[in-house]
Amino acid sequence: MSFYDYYQQFKDLDIEQYFQQVSNGDIEAILAKEELHYQDFLALLSPTATNYLEELAQQAHQKTVQYFGKTMKLYAPLYLANYCVNSCVYCSFNTTNDLTRQKLTTEEIRQEAEIIRDKGIEHLLILTGESRSETPVSYIAQAVEILTKYFSSIAIEIYPLEQAEYEQLIASGVDGLTIYQETYNQVVYNQVHLSGPKTDYRYRLEAPERGCQAGMRAVNIGPLFGLNEWRKEAFLAGLHAQYLQDQFLETKISLSMPRLKGHLGDFKPDSIVSDSNLVQLIVALRLFLPQLGLTLSTREAVELRNNLIPLGITKMSAESSTVVGGYATNKGVGQFDTADNRTVAEIKDLLIEAGYQPILKDWHSLVGLA
């Protein structure tokens, strides 16, 4: 049974009706528990739970320190290409948008790698638009073989692959996979993905499982908050993370919480996720899944990122560019707008001042060492 089959029992859940039954006493009882059931997690996402954000935040901090220590892993993204065949209404890389399409040559990949490495980054996330013709698996594997000479850990955020293709990239040096479902609501999913292979909801939903089955060391999932009502998205994303943790014990599972940000196009979200909403979903996830990695990108503003550090975040991007070739030239259209443009050194100093240890390397792939 895949997660697609498992979550059918939850996809039509009337969470508004459920929330009406959640009392202050229910939240207080949950705060006294050591392990939470999925109903407890849903209750922590309720409006009633906002009365207890301070208590929830304190427990979330304690759980994070218990399982991760006062550490923060830092990484950077590298965009290899922006060719895309999908029409996703919320994305700058939408195939219908008028922008210069490009992909990095092998020499440009080396140039970008040297600049990023000189910042001290060891964990790299490589990204492309979704175009098998312009960025086939062979191109990505070639890029990874170059990048293993510069970085100790390489993750991919590309189009969904078959298990054998993930195995091919693992053999070339990939150890992590990030893939967002964007929205777990299939009706909304169909409304915002108008054409292209990404219209296949189930194929995308099951991609993290194929990555785990292929032997990925780490898999990162998440919705794009703002496409649909955030509480139900958070609930289903939490269930997805729990499912992967239970099914694939040797894989490190993490979850990102990106909020829809400025992009090329005129799409405006129907659902607004406030800063306090973001805090609530982070602390609820941490208490529900204490060993889940939580990733925060430079989409978010400086002050907010600083304040979220103690609440459960375990991994942050630093000094990011969402432009193809952006580290060398910083010209072109990025996939989305970044809000935190501090350097890696500045973020390291902030973390140390706050009593946290910046982690630049916690893994080294054996590929390419021979």
Protein described:
This protein has an 8-stranded parallel beta barrel. The chain has a two-stranded antiparallel ribbon with strand order 2-6. Strand 8 (252-256), helix 13 and strand 9 form a beta-alpha-beta unit. The radius of gyration is 20 Å and the shape is globular. Helices cover 39% and strands 12% of the residues. The longest helix is centred in the middle third of the chain and has 18 residues, at 230-247. By secondary structure, it is an alpha/beta fold. It has one domain (3-359): TIM Barrel, CATH 3.20.20.
What keywords describe this structure?
370 residues; alpha/beta; TIM Barrel; eight-stranded parallel beta barrel; two-stranded antiparallel ribbon; globular
Short structural description:
The protein has helices at residues 3-6, 15-20, 24-31, 38-44, 53-68, 106-118, 137-147, 163-172, 186-192, 201-205, 207-214, 230-247, 275-288, 302-308, 344-353, and strands spanning 71-79, 87-88, 123-127, 153-157, 176-178, 193-195, 218-221, 252-256, 293-296, 315-317, 357-359. It is 39% helix and 12% strand.
